[in-house]
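Let us work through a complete example step by step.
Step 1: write down the sequence.
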Amino acid sequence: VKLERRAAETKPPFRCYGDVLIHSFYQVLRNDRWCDLMVSANLKTASGGRLADARYTDAASYWFDATAGRDLFQLDDGRVALRLQGMLGFYCWMTNDAVYRQNDALLFGAGLSGRLYNVSFAADYSGFSGYKNAGDHPAAYRYKLEYEYRKNILSLRFRYGVYDNLYDSFSVGYIRCF
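Step 2: predict the structure and record it as tokens.
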């Protein structure tokens, strides 16, 4: 990766900080009969340091999206539930191409989540699709299974990358709720 990115150093000679992300979420609709709808506006600054070390991209980006979700059913005060959700949006980021200085993409996602007493699960497919056709079509299937006992949660997650997303990941986690 160091050669591919032409990184000057593997360890920076001084402390460097990353980009700043600013998110704004607005709940447009909360309705049990129809759906819940939320919109967001997001900005990533180009404030990261040590670009020569391939630490940050030095490229600003912004995206807008709308997320809708609806409970298909809910029993026992939410201890048994099934929910369907979807997301659609627009993503724009700066590139290092001299001709096309930015790339625009359609954001998308759809998923299903549920709960059966102490066990919860979620599965979704999400990604974005740019117009340059140069690694700008990453997507992933994500699966999560969690077991909650008192204030402890055991978590299993699997992420399967498709198209321009070349990586898969598996994680096991422990969460303590205070």
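Step 3: interpret the result. The chain has a mean pLDDT of 87.
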